[in-house]
Amino acid sequence: MSRTVLILPGYHGSGPTHWQTWMQDRLPGARRVTGIDWASPVLSQWAEAARRSILEAPGPVWLVAHSFGCLTAVTASRGLGERIAGALLVAPADPERFSPNGVRTGTRRNGQRSLAVDLPSTPLPFPSLVVASRNDPWMRLETIEHWAGLWGSAVIDIGDAGHINIDSGFGPWPQGLVLLRALQSGRFQRRPVMPIPARRAGPALRTPRPSTIHATQTL
């Protein structure tokens, strides 16, 4: 039995010309997580909907997530490691941009706490690949590497690619399909999290970092 691919879009969803829709159309049996208000990024609600979709699938699933959907995917995975074959996490959104109730607003964030404390801070129990951009307005590359290090994820740096969405030119995305196939073939296994010297970036980023693979390297 082939494993289901679950598509998990980010804030505002993925429209008909988005790479996630393009990919879904090319993967037999792929389905999109349902029951989510894409305009209201409330992590607890999104994660519950994702968990339902994972549990309803006939077997272990492959998760293909984008932006806020990546935060949802790793949160929903708690306790469901045996139900997830692996996860492709593309351009994760910075949890500091969100509160438990949605987008954090105001220059001082009005005392709203971020979602950072709600995310897993230990290795995910399945292979995962984070695809990162150097000029992503939703999360700095160094911060992406911080979270990937905690999750034991491999990282692919595809250069200046914005938020890897329609606005940055990512409609049809053959490279994304190649990366998913590489993950499915076992190219990216769970990475051991090893301590490394901290960079001079402050305590918040003093965490292990993965080895980042650049897009010009051979997969």
UniProtKB/TrEMBL annotation:
One of its GO terms (molecular function) is hydrolase activity. Residues 209-219 have a biased composition (Polar residues). InterPro entries: AB_hydrolase_fold, RBBP9/YdeN. Residues 199-219 are annotated as: Disordered. This is Alpha/beta hydrolase.
